[in-house]
Amino acid sequence: MFETTNDDSANALELLKRDHDAVARLFQEYDEIKDGAQDSEKENLVEQICEALTVHAKIEETIFYPDARRALHEEEGKDLLEEAAVEHQTLNDKIGSLEAAPTDAPRYDARVEVMSEYVKKHGR
Question: CA-CA distance, 50 to 58, in Å (whole number)?
Answer without folding.
Answer: 12
